[in-house]
Specification:
There is one protein chain. The chain is α+β, with helices and mostly antiparallel strands. It folds into three domains: about 1-45, no CATH class; about 45-115, no CATH class; about 120-190, no CATH class. It contains seven helices and four strands. The chain is extended, with a radius of gyration of 23 Å. It has helices at about 10-15, 25-30, 50-65, 70, 100-115, 140, 180, and strands at about 120-125, 130-135, 155, 160-165.
Length: about 190
Amino acid sequence: MYTAYGLDGSERFFKNSALLEGLSPVERNNKLFSNSKFGTLRKTQGLSQLKALGSDYVSAVKYAFENDSVLCKKFENEIPNMDLPRRKGFLFERGFCIDDKNKAAESIAKLEEALKGPVDVPVKIKDSNEETIKINYFAILDNPVADIRTIMPAEYDNCGNATRLKDPSYNGLFPNGDAERLLANNPDCRK
């Protein structure tokens, strides 16, 4: 994300953080976004390629599962946790091992589900019971926000916490418009 968006005009704030000291979050945002190019999508952004990498990663881990006996070769009488070369001359001499296969399989299943589209995610909003919201983790990659200003908060409380968003779907990340509901988890403002 850092290289996908322009940071034009922000150099002076990084070099002299005192320029932002004592400012509210709203004032900081206003200073940063005073440059019209700050927060705009670069032509060379490449975000859409990340989803393909996710698919490649799933394939690679499945391959590692299927070829565990070759990639993570064990030796007779091997001392556990001994760092011995298992595949001399290969890129991964000590093997390419998946230590917790159950956890890895669970993570891969979640990634595969997310790659297909929106998934149900359990969340706890403030003091309520846990509930489920839909999140499309790859929406921002499939359809990157052209200008961050379009998804910034529209309103803040006296403490600088966002209370309303310009786009409650956060550009499709929350397809049912639930992003604002999560703002309820902000700490109570006492100002």
